[in-house]
Input
Amino acid sequence: MTVRTRVAPSPTGDPHVGTAYIALFNMCFARQHGGQFILRIEDTDQTRSTAESEQMIFDSMRWLGLEWDEGPDIGGPHAPYRQSERGAIYSRYAEELVEKGHAFRCYRTGEELDALREDLKARGVQRALKPSDLELPADEVERRHAAGASYVIRMRVPEEGRCDISDLLRGNLELDWAQVDAQILLKSDGMPTYHLANVVDDHLMEISHVIRGEEWINSAPKHKLLYEYFGWQMPVLCHMPLLRNPDKSKLSKRKNPTSINFYRRMGYLPQGLTNYLGRMGWSMPDESEKFSLEQMIASFDISRVSLGGPVFDVEKLSWLNGLWLRELDDEAFLSTLMEWAFNRDYVMQVLPHLRGRVETLSQVAERGSFCFTGVPPVNASAFDHDKFSHDQMREWLQYFLWALETLRHWNRDAIFAEAQRIAAATGVKVKDVLHPVFVAIAGTTASFSVVDSMEIIGSDLSRARIRQAIEVLGGVSKKQAKKLEKNWQRIEQGLPLDGADTE
Output
């Protein structure tokens, strides 16, 4: 059997270190067995997927040294490798399941689904919604169909019993069918959910081993059942431990920078980051901490993966990256430094904004330094304003951060539009909302246009600096977060906040 593994990221934001972690282990496993590693793009979420995010996935993976044998940009025998281009395939297989009686068209409305869940809860029934809950009488199905009502295709699942799942690392797992819902396979817009697309693509692309995060364990019964329905052999499953924050919670951008672009922009070497990801739950036979990607592939044995949640510790990463940096001679160090931030393309983005603001060349470094650093230190006094309090500015920064986290296209106009939206909702001027943003980004308000600055330094570094500013201004407690989240919902709806002066 030829070993074929894959990684299937969604192009809906910044490239995640968790994706790189899973990709690294998939690639090493395939290379160690003389097989192929495939990159597939899961872009069925058309409202959030962007071409920019897809390109960032390609760029960041290659920067880390992770190369694939088949994928959207290089082709292969199982093209297309973008799920958005495979819609007809999924529809055909979904219809096949309906014809065989393994799936059904569900015309239930959102309100009906809520009512069904409430009824189960009221009766003290602890299980997911099943076909017996969801299916309507034939005449009602016909009536809704004739009226042009929208529907989804759901799979049939057992109501009771246990499902045995074999895992390469964990052995035999037993999961309760009662907790497995009648999963939607095809959405009302004709797009597949992850579950159908994942199974169909893995089969058609001849994936032999599915190495993925442990958050997918609870979905394994659905996938196993789909393989049985289609009469296909299921790939070997291997669920990797999740990356953790230092407090052992799941790695998240609220507690740790998670974007590969962030670490690249901060000046980490690709060798250092790949080395560190390789140490996440795995070790070399000789227990050495510093090793190259080539050394990892040569010594790779997936049985050496530890199931304890590996902690992503930025301080440890920095220490390891320092070892790699100190191995560079002066010429290599200079070349790496220039490639990082002192290359012509990047510097030429900054200089037009500085040239009209300096009187001597010696002022260039001082006034443009924030464009060539990571997350510069700032203190609370830097945010002082004669009209607005630190608490108010912290709220604006939090709203702005949430807005930036969902921004599809990173450019000055889109960033400024979000500032305008927050200013309108809070009843203040845009320049007031941008006051703490200036300080967060540049360390001072005496700088060139902050939205231009943010476009130049990029989304990851901009958001990281704003997160730091929020913490410097006292942070947001869980209680405060609930209030701010309610306010944010109003802003999202285009409504002013209570008490805002919108005149």
Q: What stands out?
A: The longest helix spans residues 17-32.
